[in-house]
Each structure stands twice: as C-alpha cells, then as structure tokens.
C-alpha cells in the first residue's frame, strides 16, 4: 500500500517509520526539501499546499494519507486527495475525542476539517486517531524539546494565543517536584485522562492501515489514569513527595477570566487545557485500536517517565 504522511515533525516521523516497518511504501509531504530527513532514511516530497497541481502530482497512486498538518493547508490536502482518488485520509487529530471539545479556536479549526470529511465520506474514507495526552509533555524540556510537535499550532493560534509546550507547563513539574491538577470533576468525581507515547501512536496508526474499513474514531492509549495516580507515578519514579495543588473548576474558570482580562494568552492557553482535562475531554473508556491490535505493546507512563528522566541525570 502506498502511504503519504503530511508533515515532518516527530509525530510524523514516528508514524512514517512504523508504516515502513509494516512493509508499506511511504513518503512524507513537506513544504521544504528537508535533506536532513533524507539522511535519516525518510523519503520526502516537497509540496506547495497552495498549489493544487503540486499536491495532486504528489498524491497520484497513494492509497492513504495520514495528516499532521492543520488549518487551510490540510483542507487543500483533502481537496487534492479527492482529485487524485486517494481512498483514505486521517486528519491531524491525535488528541482527545472529537466533538467532546469546546469550541475554542484550535478545536473549531479541527471540527471544520472533520465536517469537511463528513461531507465527502462517500469518496474519501476517514477516521480520527485519538490518543489522549502525549507522554512527551512531561519529559525534560517538555513537548518543545521532544521534537514530537512542530509547535506551529500552539505557537500562533488564530487568536494570537501562545502555548509553547515548555517543560512543566502542563500539570506536572517533575524537575521541581510540583503538580497542579484538576483532580475532581464539578460533581466531585475523580478526573481521568488517557496518555500515550508518540512512538506508540505511530505503531497503532501503522497497524490500523490493515483495517478494511475505518470506524469514525480509532482510539489508542498507553494508559488511562486517574490524575491523582498520574502524579503518584511521578512521585514513585522520583522517590519524592510532590507539592500537589488541586485546582477546582470554579477557580480554574476564575483564573481563566482574570488571565483573559490581563491578555496573558499563555496563561489562558494553559488554563484552557486544564479545563479540557477537568471536563474529561482527554478521557475515553474503550480504546478500540488497543482492542484490535493487542500485539502493540505500549509503554506505561512509569516506564516512559523513568527512561526520559534517567537520560537527563
Ligand atoms: N495529544 C497531544 O498531547 C498532542 C500534542 C501536540 C500535538 N498533537 C497533535 O499532533 C499533530 C501534529 O501537531 P504539531 O504540533 O506537530 O502540528 P504543527 O505544528 O501544525 O506541525 C505539523 C506539520 O505541519 C507542517 N506545517 C506547519 N506549519 C505549516 C503551514 N503553515 N503550512 C503547511 N504545513 C505546515 C510541518 O511540516 P513541514 O514543515 O515539513 O511542511 C509540520 O511538521 C496535531 O494533530 C496535534 O493536534 C497532540
């Protein structure tokens, strides 16, 4: 099967590597030539997302496109998949379950893409790959240093808000033994979230290429954890008790209003993702990709965290 992966950051590299390991022909689409990726063994085709002919030419003969590219370029990619008779398309999702997200700018753009895919579903099959939160947020240097995300969506959202993915910016500050978590729902129940290592996401995506028909969502995870247990694991790995702040729903919303009034967009973005976690948007009970491919042995959060910080010591 011929597969194209759009984008070239770490997640795209994990997916491409895993797809090749499954024996498929695979290449990446990029706005640039990216010779350093060719040196690493990746095949890269340079495209111009604003030139339909360039995209069309790259997609001839491709069965499946996996996108990590968002916004208008992704919509152009869908149009070109239709013109080049691509059979399947997976949009840049790779987070919580769609339609449970609030209509903040970043989420709205993703919903627009999913709506477009619904319109064309007779011609182009699609699925939303859902994986919860990447473990890579919690390693040394955070998501930014992990290279998993190119960071474009987070650096410059349409509202100009900024969320860089620095170390300790999201729930857990492993280095300084601190955590701020929305541990309880508005009703007082424990909050859970799903978490996955980006490399495991790549392996699940590659396995799911085998499916004859994709369901609307393909959910995968390394672990589903109560947020209090998520911090407990970090404490166990470090062998220290962390200073844990449990932030309630009311306080989260009040802080978000204050940050909004102060035009502190970085803080607003941080609070938005905490609110999303507290609302359970990053949680799902069944993980159908794990059920279908139990041979994909996922890393537990403890395994991943221990390894990530051992390298730092
Ligand atoms: N679950 C989580 O914790 C989590 C965290 C972060 C991201 N994600 C998800 O992972 C996926 C990828 O995220 P990301 O942060 O890497 O996305 P991104 O910053 O938008 O970058 C993805 C790719 O898009 C291409 N790109 C960037 N800007 C572009 C533009 N203006 N026009 C055309 N192409 C452009 C880049 O490839 P080239 O430069 O090679 O063209 C890049 O590799 C998204 O679906 C995101 O939601 C999930």
Automatic annotation (TrEMBL):
GO terms for molecular function: oxidoreductase activity. InterPro entries: NAD(P)-bd_dom_sf (IPR036291), NmrA-like (IPR008030), NmrA/Isoflavone_reductase-like (IPR051609). This is NmrA-like domain-containing protein. The lineage of its organism: Eukaryota, Fungi, Dikarya, Ascomycota, Pezizomycotina. Signal peptide: none annotated. Keywords: NADP, Oxidoreductase. It comes from Tuber borchii (White truffle). Pfam families: NmrA. Residues 2-259 form the NmrA-like domain. It comes from the Eukaryota.
